[in-house]
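Worked Example 4.2. Consider the chain below.
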Amino acid sequence: MYIFTCVQPSPFPVLAQDGAVMTIDGAGHNILPTVNFQASNLTDKKIEATRNGKIEIGLVRVRSRAATFPIFLFKFGGMVFDVPFSIGLEADNKRASLTHALSHADSLTRNATWGLTLETVERTTHMTKSIRMIAPSPRFWKAAADSLLGSAGLTREMQHDMLQRLYSKYPMPSQLFRRAVYVEKFR
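Applying the procedure from the previous section yields the following structure tokens:
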């Protein structure tokens, strides 16, 4: 588990371009998801929007005959990020703990759901500019868990092919957001 502070270097690797990275760890019946957004030229207005503004999250299910996996979408401060995630690409021990935790998504309730940590980083300086926690609904996590569990057998090549087909139709994350099966808004 990471403990973040603002205006400190992020523990995540620097991306080659603006984008996002998601990590999900399994712990018992819980998951601990974190999304690291890296953007160049973050203005004070965008940083404030990431801290206190409206955030929309969406979920797109990418399917083939062999597998399914989710793409998590995040819209805030005039920016839209897409984050494909598959447990099939994780190490065996992590895949097993995630599968165990995700199999308990049906026990989530309005009062007991999984949180989501959002860390916004200035890509050029690698400094954390904001950290925010939100609590997506059990309905959102149940849909995500179904897609994540369907990704257990996914290989890197399969995911690459599926993403190529999807991104040829929807090259921008904002276009893909319109295809989301679930969208939730946070203030």
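The CA atoms of residues 106 and 112 lie 11 Å apart. The chain has a mean pLDDT of 91. Compare this with Example 4.1 before moving on.
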